[in-house]
Amino acid sequence: MESHLAYLDAGSGSLIVQALVAGTAGVVVAAKLYWRRVTSVFRRKTPAEAPVEAPVETPAETQTATPAAATADKD
Amino acid sequence: MTPEHTRPVPEPGSFRDPQTRVFHADGEVLRGLGAQAAQDWKALRDSEFFARTQADKTVTATDEVERELPGEPGTWSATLRHEPLPFVTYPYEWSHTMRQDAAALHLDLLQQALKAGFTMKDGSAYNVQWRGAKPEFIDVGSFEPAKPGEPWAGYRQFCQTLLYPLMLQAHLDLDPRALLRSQIDGVEPAQMRRLLGGTKRLAAGVLKHVHLHDSIQSRNADRSTGAVREQLRDAGFNSELVAAAVRAMAKLVAKLEWAPPATHWGDYRETCSYSDDDRAAKQQFVDAALDAARNRELVLDLGANDGVFSRQAAAKAGYVVAVEADPAVVDTLYRQLRAEGEKRILPIVMDLADPSPGGGWAGHERAGFAQRAAKADVTLALALVHHLAIGRNVPLPAIVDWLAGMGRTVVVEFVHAEDPMARKLLANKPDGLFPDYHVETFVRLLGERFDIAKRETLPGGTRTMIAGVRRD
After folding, report:
1. Pairwise CB contact (< 8 Å): B156 & A7
2. What is the interface pTM, i.e. ipTM, of the complex?
3. What secondary structure does DSSP assign to B200-213, as a single string?
4. Do B153 and A10 touch (CB under 8 A)?
């Protein structure tokens, strides 16, 4: 896939704020992003979603869950 | 082997984007483009959008040239040439309305770019320069074809260098120049949050762009921008949302007005001690000195006040920079010049006893005022010396040395200690503190560095005009 990284660090939080600035449709997108983060722990993890929000439980077929992923939560 | 042109020198303020770099050579401004940037440029060059920005001069006039640029073979795939600027200034030298117009231009170009399928890599106030009272976007290397669902990478930079400074002035009446001058990347969301608490949270744009921005930023600090971009895309972020966000910011910028407080300079000309005869004689003296100057491409009017002598000089000179310490006075002058469509008088805010130092990487990413002022042909220092010598205790020999670092031709209006304006300043200092403050002393000191071409005391008897030509 094409790299999306520009020379400038856009700030990961700043990118989300941009959605909120865009009005109602943007707020929906941001809400969806946060909802997906919360529910991502019940789905198969993708690299994009790491670090996980809260490792509630590890799925049954757990050959992908590594100790690093399970301890990635800092909160 | 003899090159047709001298070896281009890299511009110290242009290293952040490795894909493009600006060089100076023989008075030309050149820009090297790496392979990717050259490809982006070709798309931009052929677009109707870019043609429009060239026609209305909102983006610096640019063409493609054949030149050797420094660097390993293959570093540069194309070379652009930009129309040079008569004088470079920085956001900490602009008045509020100038910053507002710079922000509006940046967003307007982004909106047009988005419609044409392009975006901007960044959002910096330093992308904007001035030709007189008209802002101009100089960073042609910033445009690139937009990728679907991609947010604007420059949003944070735009906040820090343009939007936040506007908010500080509009919401708090706090001049942002000190922060901009000391922090090259602008004001941080966390700093803004501390300044805009309480009911100020409700002021235009503050909740979203400052408070939410800061908390979302700290909560996402350990996520990469690549990961967040992917999450945004998965959640349905699209180009319409980028356009909507930019529209909302443009509306906000227009709302961030500032009403300057009435200052004593506002009515300076009414209350100052000039008679009509004085004024006429002073104008004639300045005109004659400008006529006699060998070069008058770039004139500095130091302590320009309402700009009346900048205007007079502009009738004879190529370009005039009107330097004035009071931001309210500069803002008023800028608005007037903008309404007149003036492109040869640039007003800037600067305390001449504390001029802009060099800034950024190694202290020369942004050039100090002294370095930029050295290119001037003529310096006007009209009713300025008493402010520096009496108001700020700068010794007269130091003032003369400083003047010698600028225009070859200097025109000084020396205000005698007996003049009401000088007396006002002296009233705040102990008696006898400035025994050397005398026109004869000043003329003698000036004569050590300059040939005194002309000297004339104005009819009122308390001000002396002196024209000098530096002995080079």
Report:
1. no
2. 0.87
3. GGGSTTHIIIIIIH
4. yes
